[in-house]
Amino acid sequence: MEDSAIIDLYWRRSDQAISETEKKYGKYCRSIAYHICASREDAEECVNDTWFRAWNLMPDKRPSALSVFLGGITRHFALDRMKAKNRKKRGGGEAILALDELSECIPDGTDLEQSVEEKELEHAIGSFVARLPADEKITFILRYWYFVPVSEIAARMQFSQSKTKSILFRVRNKLKTYLMEADLCQIR
Questions:
Q1: Contact present, 150 and 143 (Cβ < 8 Å)
Q2: For a disulfide at 37, which of 24, 42, 100, 145, Cβ 3.0-4.6 Å?
Q3: Domain ranges for the chain
Q4: 109: Cβ–Cβ under 8 A, 6 or more apart, which residues?
Q5: Mean pLDDT over residues 144-173, rounded?
Q6: Whole-model pTM above 0.70?
Q7: What one-character DSSP code corresponds to residue 186?
Q8: Predicted pLDDT at 110
Q9: Residue 102's closest CA among 47, 176, 52?
Q10: Are 97 and 164 in contact (CB under 8 A)?
Q11: DSSP conformation letters of 108-164
């Protein structure tokens, strides 16, 4: 079913909207949640929460890209779940590692409490990523949006792990420089 038809089902408040969303985007959303939470049970809960949130948001919003809309909601729930778990017990996980890697070039949340500054940073990072060569862009997005492990990225991109790590290191440094030049980051 086309995205516009699924969105219409949400707007008509049809129960079929959830089942059609599950058919088309269930695997995609579970993948996002699993890479962040590293637990099938948590991923499943995040996806269920995503369907519920989409149901509640859809009458007020008509997303232009359903996959991006659903992926963003899933990612939000998964990050919240991961943070809650890590508050209870300090542990690892790909999301923690990836966020740690980015901490070198992205300021911490204390300076970005205001939504205007957050939007500027979000826009700047989006512009930066859009200008990257395809291999760097895909590698960066897989690691820092989907939190895919380096070994999986290397296999998917048909790179060695050291090449993948090198690409990520160089792109993080470019991002740091880009953000510093845009006066959005004053980190070391």
A1: yes
A2: 42
A3: 3-88, 95-181
A4: none
A5: 92
A6: no
A7: -
A8: 46
A9: 176
A10: no
A11: -GGGG-SHHHHHHHHHHHHHHHHTS-HHHHHHHHHHHTS---HHHHHHHHT--HHHH
Q: Which amino acid is at 52?
A: F
Residue linked to tokens 């939190």: 147
Structure letter (DSSP) for residue 64:
S
Sign of the torsion angle spanned by Cα atoms 43, 46, 50, 51: positive
* Lowest-pLDDT choice from 17-21, 57-61, 119-123: 119-123
Which burial class, exposed, middle or buried, applies to 139 when counting CB atoms under 10 A from its CB (0-12, 13-18, 19+)? buried
Identity of residue 132: L
Q: Write the class of the CATH domain 3-88.
A: mainly alpha
Q: Check if 3-88 and 95-181 are the same fold.
A: no
Tokens of 102: 């980015």
Yes or no: domain 95-181 corresponds to CATH 3.40.50.2000? no
Total residue count of the chain as it appears in this document: 188
| Structure-block tokens of residue 81 | 């779940």
For Cα atoms 140, 50, 33, give the angle at the middle one, nearest 5 degrees: 40
In one-letter notation, the amino acid at residue 62 is R
Using the structure block, give the residue that is written with the tokens 């059609």. Answer: 20
